[in-house]
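It would be a great kindness if you could assist me with a short task in structural biology. The full record is reproduced below for your convenience:
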Amino acid sequence: MHKNFIDGVWCEGPGVRENLNPSDLSNLVGLYAQADSQQTQQAIQAAAYVQPLWAAYGPQRRAEALDQIGTEILARREELGRLLASEEGKVLPEAVAEVSRAGHIFKFFAGEALRMTGEHLDSVRPGIEVDILRQPVGVVGIITPWNFPIAIPAWKIAPALAYGNSVVFKPADLVPGSAWALAEIISRAGLPAGTFNLVMGRGSVVGQVLAESANVSAITFTGSTSTGRHLMQVAGARLARLQLEMGGKNPLVVLDDADLEHAVECAVQGAYFSTGQRCTASSRIIVEKGIHQRFIEAVASRLSEIRVGHALHEGTHIGPVAEEAQLRQNLEYVDIGQAEGARLAYGGQPLSRTSEGYYMSPALFVDAAPDMRIAQEEIFGPVACVIPADDYEHALEIANGTPFGLSAGICTGSLKHATHFKRHVKSGMVMVNTPTAGVDYHVPFGGTKASSYGPREQGHQAIEFFTTLKTAYTLA
């Protein structure tokens, strides 16, 4: 049984969760402890007690610890990738790539620990000097989703530790295996007991305690918009620092001058790979009328080549949906799209394979209208709709016509339109002739509108959330 890690000790919880393989429901990945509110409070208290000590360790020791963690992750990428694929359903090459990204994130922030700077200025008043210092915020509560069960925890935990904060980490209840493996690696990196705590369990229990606790100075969360709003109400009411990464309904605009084959690959990669379970997935494909029919036919042909199957089997392009509830929701949206009048041009059916799992064929809707639910609501599965546009200006209007604003893409041969789109699309990230899903770890990640709240994640800009500024005046 895999235990929680609290104040440097592995602890059983009052409950246990079975972690099942969505590619093969007869395969038990493992048993994982479930914490209650009391254990969560213990973790918070331990983190609060030790945080000043960890901050006093200094940047060199913090950098060495993070580099050690990154080195082990990279050395074990194949093993950890198989675990990730087994519990989340991501195909093995994608899973190994995600583990590699997590390792590189820790190594990046090992360097950032040594690059934390301040400023020294002369005051406007004679004889007074001014120092602007960056200091850790304190205890950071980390709540992560199930779709990237090691990379997203890494890009929150690494900067939190790099800048001298202590951590209470609550992973998604659906995928505790990768989180536990990461915690086990961190547990051997020489951090003082209580600096890092793993508390697995229900969001309504563990997450609620983190939101309510006055000892948790900041919460960084990735998940649904509804949960993000709840955290805003509860943790925001006590003026906790918040970083919320939430939903997306990302557009990919394809103009008449785009390279058809390349645009099709951008659309298929962005919309369907990782089983469409990415907040940056291109679920709205907005196509100019001159290329519209050829594009639809080419995408349908490309989807016919996609092999859906067991995540660990060689040759599988798309694995299963992560859980039964998500599969049920995906299929409900297929019904909703047809009822709204969109035409299902490909897929959208549950599939049977040699092992029992949560399989479905990628769904392509065409003749969709911008105000349909399938074009406005985040589905979070391998379901995309094609919306026709009269011209570039019309396509941009449709692209901006949702409450979300995470990622947006355009396929075009026009530098003029690409430049205009980068400046005027309402999203935090813009992709030109590349899929909307797929980002680097050394640059900022985040969106606008209902997609994000608070400072950006990743890159050097992560320092804005995980540190606070202090201005000190000294009479010389």
About this structure: The chain has two domains: 4-246+451-475, 251-432. The longest strand covers residues 24-34. Residues 251-432 form a domain with the Aldehyde Dehydrogenase; Chain A, domain 2 fold (CATH 3.40.309.10).
